[in-house]
Design a protein that fits this description.
Order of helices and strands: EEEHEEHHEEHHEEEHEHHHHHHHHEH
Number of strands: 12
CATH class of the largest domain: Mainly Alpha
Organism: Camelus dromedarius
Strand content: 5-15%
Keywords: ATP-binding, Kinase, Membrane, Nucleotide-binding, Phosphoprotein, Serine/threonine-protein kinase, Transferase, Transmembrane, Transmembrane helix
Number of domains: 2
Distance between the termini: 21 Å
Number of helices: 15
CATH architecture of the largest domain: Orthogonal Bundle
Shape: globular
Oligomer: single chain
Pfam family, one: Pkinase
InterPro entries: AGC-kinase_C, Kinase-like_dom_sf, Pkinase_C, Prot_kinase_dom, Ser/Thr_kinase_AS
CATH topology of the largest domain: Transferase(Phosphotransferase), domain 1
Protein name: Protein kinase C zeta type
CATH superfamily of the largest domain: Transferase(Phosphotransferase) domain 1
Length: about 400
């Protein structure tokens, strides 16, 4: 058999999940032999095509048992569903395929080799406004793509914004997404990265889609044609974008707490700051940048930029800060990015923190007792191959 597994470049553990980057060249055919090399499993599934470099995300048995016991198994299928839909957007990391064994679930996803914004921000401290404007605009398109499909992202942060080889963004990690939200539908789940959590979540309020006026089909068609139609609500994502834009342009969080008082270095105090303290915009930012930050970081979701029913996304696109953006070109990835990551080879490992790329891969052995407690019927239909890839392979 040809050498299939070229290199294993690292492992990363977050929220109980093992996220393993398996850099693979050539035709990836998951056979008994290959699986034994990387995760001691045994099943035959075709999950690849020639010339691709992929990432395999592994959800292990201990995690499956924990979430099933908590009655929260829906998030696994939700993440898979969002990955499937994300494949249709140039600004979202898409799904290649899924497969499973009795002890693990595997999601094979795109490998984006330009690093994440956190990595690049740590080296530049802050970005020029024109760079931040470009990335924020592409993020807006990605978020609107999800919102139009009734999905709240809920985990926007520097770490989850990847750059591709050309310098365009791709959002990744859909583990906190909520899907199936229509007009008037809300949720109240407390989740997110602390520094990015919106005030309405901290206040325990319902958030999601606002009720909207009923439009006749002709009016909806005209609104879409004119770029005015957008799903209402989704306020928590636009708040998080405001935090991220502040970090990019100011080089720090809007909620930085500089103190020696241990009582003020707690998560509870951070939440108090988010809820109560006014946000001070640095004076060195332009008037337009200051205005857009105040718009996204409005503590009242009804007044927040992007949250007006029907015209939320249009309000963002027409804001003075984004006036120089050609949204049509941007949506087609035809706008020139302000920065192109340095990539010395296909892997682009120089753009990732060595904390992740230098770790040895260590997978725990199967726990037969845990496996017996997992209801395998919960994962029926999990296996998947992107139909776009199948059509591509058939045409080769």
């Amino acid at each position: 058999m040809d050498k299939v597994l070229e290199m294993v470049v690292g492992m990363r553990v977050m929220v109980g999940m093992v996220v393993m980057m398996l850099v693979v060249k050539g035709m990836l055919v998951v056979t008994d032999e290959v699986l034994e090399m990387v995760m001691a499993a045994g099943m035959r599934v075709m999950v690849g095509m020639v010339g691709m470099i992929l990432v395999v995300k592994v959800i292990v048995d201990e995690v499956l048992e924990t979430v099933m016991a908590a009655g929260d198994i829906d998030w696994v299928q939700t993440e898979k569903h969002v990955f499937e839909q994300a494949s249709s957007s140039p600004f979202l990391v898409g799904l290649h395929s899924c497969f499973q064994t009795t002890s693990r679930l595997f999601l094979v996803i795109e490998y984006v080799n330009g690093g994440d914004l956190m990595f690049h921000m740590q080296r530049q401290r802050k970005l020029p406004e024109e760079h931040a404007r470009f990335y924020a605009a592409e993020i807006c398109i990605a978020l609107n793509f999800l919102h139009e499909r009734g999905i709240i992202y809920r985990d926007l942060k520097l770490d989850n914004v990847l750059l591709d080889a050309d310098g365009h963004i791709k959002l990744t990690d859909y583990g906190m997404c909520k899907e199936g939200l229509g007009p008037g539908d809300t949720t109240s789940t407390f989740c997110g990265t602390p520094n990015y959590i919106a005030p309405e979540i901290l206040r325990g309020e319902e958030y999601g889609q606002q009720e909207t006026p009923v439009l006749r089909p002709l009016h909806v068609a005209r609104a879409r044609r004119d770029g005015l139609h957008s799903p209402p609500g989704f306020s928590v994502d636009w708040w998080a974008l405001g935090v991220l834009m502040f970090e990019m342009m100011a080089g720090r969080s809007p909620f930085d707490i500089i103190t020696d008082n241990p009582d003020m270095n707690t998560e509870d105090y951070l939440f108090q700051v988010i809820l109560e303290k006014p946000i001070r915009i640095p004076r060195f930012l332009s008037v337009k940048a200051s205005h857009v930050l105040k718009g996204f970081l409005n503590k009242d979701p009804k007044e927040r930029l992007g949250c007006r029913p029907q015209t939320g996304f249009s309000d963002i696109k027409s804001h003075a800060f984004f006036r120089s953006i050609d949204w049509d070109l941007l949506g087609k990835k035809q706008a020139l990015p302000p920065f192109q990551p340095q990539i010395t080879d296909d892997y682009g490992l120089d753009n990732f923190d060595t904390q992740f790329t230098s770790e040895p891969v260590q997978l725990t052995p199967d726990d037969e007792d845990v496996i017996k407690r997992i209801d395998q019927s919960e994962f029926e239909g999990f296996e998947y191959i992107n139909p776009l890839l199948l059509s591509t392979e058939e045409s080769v």
